[in-house]
Each structure stands twice: as C-alpha cells, then as structure tokens.
Design brief:
The protein is an alpha+beta fold. It is 20% helix and 24% strand.
C-alpha cells in the first residue's frame, strides 16, 4: 500500500500525496486573507504608499467585511511579502523561536532560494526589502486574535532591524519582530505532516475549523457539445486531528 499523508492545522483535513515535499506551514492568520500591496510595483513601490483592501469573514454565523489599511512609507512590493513569510519561516524553524532573529544575509538568501552568488545585488535588494518591511504599519478592524479566539480591531508593524553598514560585513543581521505580530504568528496552529502505511479512522462531516470553511459556488455551465474527459482521482484518506498552538505531537506507527 502506498504511504498516506495527513496535514492538520487545528482540525484541518488531509490529502494523499505520492512524493515528499519541502516542509511548509499554514498560518491561521487574517493577514493571509489578502495581498499586502498591489501586484504592479509601478503602483506600490513608491514613497507614501497606502493599500486599502479587505476580506469577508464569518462571526457568530454572520457574514461580515473586514477593512484593512497597509501603510508603507517607503513603498512595498509582492517580493517583499515573499521575504516577510520567508523570514518568519526561518525564525520559527529555530529550536527555540524568539522575537529576535540573528542570521547572515548569505544564510537567509540561500535558505530562501534567492542567492545566485555570494554578495552582489541580492544583498542590497535584501537590505532594501527589510527597510521597507520595517516601515510598514498594518491596521485591520476585524483581525482574528488566536489568544482571545475572537476578532479584534488591531494595528501593528512587522519588524525592526539593526544591520551592518556594509553588505560585505561578516556580522549577522539582526531582525526584531513586532511583539504583537510575533504573538499572533506564534499562537497559530501549525501544519502537521504524517506518513502512514495504513489508514486511520476516516473523518466524517464538515470540518469544524473555521479557517478551512469552503464556499458554496454555483454549478458550472457546460456546453452539451463539449467533449469532457473523466477526472480520475487517486484514493485519499481524510482525518481530523485536533492540534493546539505551541505543542508538539509525535505519532508512532505500531
């Protein structure tokens, strides 16, 4: 029998996969409900940039809309957002993650798959990205607080920094995360990957985790003359595994 895999975040449901993939994470963060800036850098990578957006959410069985304002005095780009999540991943990949992250730019860029050669323009671009992220202030009138388990009117920055003056320095770069933002990320559930040779008890009913709620969509309109091939899906096993933020789970096969 092929190996089965379970992915769980809270009561997340899992899927089968054939080949191992790099470790990754799922954040139960309102921040991932939308982009932080426009995709076109000609619009967003300018001084005094402000991005206003929002998203729908369900609170007490009522559908509501959250309003978001992202203020970026030095501008912002979609690549900056990539580095934000990359630095968070490196921070929480440490044995004991803390609000302070120390690493050389060579290590960070290599881990994020962005380093072509040591030094060069990648270091300068990385420095500029950190400066832009340090200037960002995020505001949302319905940000989910995982500690209180309710939606709050919240405002926070992302990070502060202390860097060597010159890119060719061998000293580590210091990143200090905003305490409130770090708490939000730290308290969210993670992603659990579990390989099995036999299936567990299959989950039943709707997933109770609100972050995995699926939207109802209308049936597609298909032309009677369309030639459609049947979709053949591999058999999958779906499980519910409750997890709690900050805890480690070990599963041993017998």
């Amino acid at each position: 029998m092929e190996n089965q895999s379970i992915h769980a975040a809270g009561n997340a449901k899992g899927i089968q996969r054939r080949h191992p993939r790099p470790r990754s994470g799922i954040a139960q963060l309102s921040l991932v409900e939308h982009a932080l800036c426009a995709l076109d850098p000609a619009l967003s990578l300018v001084g005094g940039y402000q991005h206003q957006t929002g998203y729908f959410y369900t609170d007490a069985n009522q559908r509501r809309f959250a309003h978001v304002t992202v203020s970026a005095p030095l501008g912002l780009s979609s690549r900056d957002e990539y580095f934000l999540w990359g630095l968070l991943a490196l921070t929480f990949n440490q044995p004991q993650p803390s609000i302070e992250f120390l690493a050389t730019p060579h290590y960070c860029l290599k881990q994020l798959g962005y380093l072509e050669v040591k030094g060069g323009k990648q270091y300068a671009e990385f420095r500029a990205t950190i400066k832009r992220l340090a200037g960002v202030y995020y505001q949302c009138d319905a940000f989910y607080d995982p500690r209180l388990q309710t939606f709050q009117d919240a405002g926070f920055g992302f990070l502060k920094y202390s860097l060597p003056q010159h890119d060719d320095s061998s000293r580590a770069w210091r990143i200090v995360w905003d305490p409130l933002f770090f708490e939000y990320v730290q308290r969210t559930g993670g992603k659990l990957s579990l390989g099995l040779t036999t299936p567990l008890t299959v989950a039943a009913g709707a997933n109770p985790n609100p972050f995995f709620e699926t939207a109802s969509v209308q049936q597609p309109i298909v032309s009677p003359s369309a030639m459609l091939n049947d979709v053949m899906l591999e058999p999958t096993f779906v499980y519910d595994i409750p997890t709690e933020p900050g805890r480690t789970y070990v599963f041993a096969a017998k």
